[in-house]
């Protein structure tokens, strides 16, 4: 059925294109284009007969295109939008169209534009590399994609967008479910001028937020990630079938925009070390740590979860132990930490404290934790308590870390996850406590972005400068 639909769309719009080449451009097309937001100046730069009056808006008009950007137009048709985009991005930019017909390619040749091209492909499978596009536009095309394939289109958009990239889509949506007389009418699937043209496959407006949220991710694409690190330090990653994951649906606009801006400026992701405090097979502190990691990963962080299994009990002889060295190197690598401990006998666990004990306050001139941001959380076996997070806060201060004001404590943690063996048994159930965990991760990212550029400033202390000065004076005196 989907293949028949694609063939119909290609055939119908191919016929419209051929017809337009053999007819005189009329004022009707110009009037329709102006009604949808195109200006007289826009229409003047187009080759003759490029405007086929097939638009339902003007995405170039609200895409805020900038010189030097790479723009992708999904379903270019005659190329009106890709041509206008090429003028906006200038010689150093690139405007790429995707279509199943070659009319846009012919109009680009007529216009003599060297910074525009068209790929002949389906918009749910575009032969371009991951994270290669600054802005994706589309004009009355996604509604022509069969319902079963629409999610694939949005996944492709998410794959192609650079971190912080944006989307400008003009399309037809249904305010309420359409009757079968419309949805099953091929005559209303494609068309021109008819008031119901292109409405048969209109997506219900209520479903759009779930699609758009999937675009709102700054996570490291698998193709750009280190395979060994992904295998060893990212146990929180989910299979593709978990696309409806609750983390993907979170509204994190402010933190997302801050993180995207950081990536655009330096492409330097926030490096986060996650520690948890239990070796139990079904450890709730580990499960909460993994959920926190998923939120941070979506916000563009390079997240690494340390597995404490095999870490020796703190002593004076095992400093060269592989697990000790691994933990210390991760701490030096990080910009911030996430600590999650169970509360046991009214305080944090020995398994958690042991990890911190192995991280020295200083190694030569390097302080592995000084000035780093820290977010803390605890899980409780009974009623809510704050003993563990209070101790974690003291511990963070002792390690010269900046602990964010917010914190998370989850009471009766076993009630916040489905029973073991049930679907989603590793996932935190909806509750105010889950929302608080999201608050903490969002706040952690904001504080880290603000503080990270000034790490050396926060580490500058009078006492240490004075100690260094006295030492240098003694060395100078000894030389004399």
- End-to-end separation in angstroms reads 92 Å
> What is the residue-mean pLDDT, rounded to a whole number?
85
CATH architecture of the largest domain: 3-Layer(aba) Sandwich
Tally of helical segments? 18
**Level of helix content?**
25-40%
Strand content: 5-15%
Strand tally: 14
Major sheet summary line: 7 strands, mixed
Outline, from the CA principal axes? elongated
Assembly state here? single chain
> Could you state the CATH homologous superfamily of the largest domain?
Flavodoxin domain
Rg, nearest Å: 28 Å
CATH fold-level assignment of the largest domain? Rossmann fold
Descriptive notes:
The chain has 480 residues and is α/β, with parallel strands linked by helices. It folds into two domains: 2-215, Rossmann fold, CATH 3.40.50; 222-464, Rossmann fold, CATH 3.40.50.360. The protein is 40% helix and 15% strand. It has 18 helices and 14 strands. The chain has helices spanning 2-21, 27-35, 40-44, 59-62, 80-89, 103-111, 150-160, 180-183, 208-215, 227-233, 253-266, 284-298, 322-333, 350-357, 387-398, 432-451, 455-458, 462-479, and strands spanning 70-74, 94-99, 116-120, 133-139, 161-170, 173-174, 203-204, 271-276, 302-305, 336-344, 347-348, 373-379, 402-403, 408-410. Strands 8, 9, 10, 11, 12, 13 and 14 form a seven-stranded mixed sheet that branches. The chain has a five-stranded parallel sheet with strand order 3-2-1-4-5. Strand 6 (173-174), helix 8 (180-183) and strand 7 (203-204) form a beta-alpha-beta unit. The longest helix is centred in the first third of the chain and has 20 residues, at 2-21. It starts with a helix and ends with a helix. The model has no long low-confidence stretch (mean pLDDT 85).
């Amino acid at each position: 059925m989907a293949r028949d639909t694609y063939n119909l769309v290609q055939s119908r719009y191919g016929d419209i294109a051929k017809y337009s080449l053999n007819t005189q451009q009329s004022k009707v097309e110009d009037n329709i284009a102006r009604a949808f937001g195109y200006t007289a100046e826009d229409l003047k730069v187009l080759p003759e007969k490029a405007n086929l009056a097939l638009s339902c808006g003007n995405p170039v008009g609200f895409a805020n295109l900038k010189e030097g950007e790479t723009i992708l137009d999904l379903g270019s048709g005659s190329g009106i939008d890709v041509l206008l985009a090429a003028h906006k991005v200038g010689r150093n930019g690139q405007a790429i169209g995707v279509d199943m017909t070659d009319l846009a390619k012919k109009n680009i040749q007529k216009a003599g534009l060297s910074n525009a091209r068209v790929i002949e492909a389906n918009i749910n499978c575009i032969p371009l590399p991951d994270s290669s596009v600054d802005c994706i536009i589309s004009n009355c095309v996604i509604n022509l994609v069969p319902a079963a394939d629409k999610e694939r289109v949005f996944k492709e958009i998410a794959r192609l967008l650079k971190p912080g990239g944006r989307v400008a889509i003009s399309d037809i949506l249904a305010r309420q479910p359409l009757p079968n007389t419309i949805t099953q009418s091929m005559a209303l699937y494609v068309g021109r001028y008819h008031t119901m043209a292109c409405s048969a496959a209109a997506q219900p407006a209520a479903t759009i937020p779930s699609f758009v949220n999937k675009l709102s991710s700054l996570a490291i694409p698998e193709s750009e990630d280190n395979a060994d690190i992904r295998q060893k330090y990212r146990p929180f990653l989910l299979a593709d079938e978990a696309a409806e994951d609750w983390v993907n649906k979170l509204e994190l606009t402010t933190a997302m925009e801050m993180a995207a801006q950081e990536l655009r400026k330096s492409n330097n992701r926030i490096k986060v070390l996650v520690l948890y405090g239990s070796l139990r097979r079904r450890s709730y502190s580990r499960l909460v740590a993994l959920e926190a990691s998923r939120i941070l990963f979506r916000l563009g962080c390079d997240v690494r979860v340390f597995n404490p299994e095999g870490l020796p009990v703190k002593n004076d002889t095992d400093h060269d132990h592989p697990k000790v060295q691994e933990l210390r190197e991760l701490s030096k690598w990080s910009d911030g930490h996430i600590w999650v401990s169970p509360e046991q006998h009214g305080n944090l666990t020995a398994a958690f404290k042991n990890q911190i004990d192995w991280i020295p306050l200083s190694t030569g001139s390097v302080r592995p934790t000084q000035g780093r941001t820290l977010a803390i959380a605890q899980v409780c076996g009974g009623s809510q308590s704050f003993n563990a997070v209070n101790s974690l806060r003291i511990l963070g201060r002792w390690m010269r870390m900046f602990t964010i004001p917010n914190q998370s404590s989850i009471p009766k943690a076993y009630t916040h996850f489905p029973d073991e063996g049930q679907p989603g048994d590793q996932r935190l159930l909806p509750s105010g406590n889950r929302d608080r965990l999201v608050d903490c991760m969002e706040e952690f990212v904001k504080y880290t972005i603000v503080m990270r550029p000034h790490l050396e400033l926060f580490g500058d202390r009078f006492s240490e400068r004075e100690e260094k000065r006295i030492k240098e004076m003694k060395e100078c005196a000894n030389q004399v």
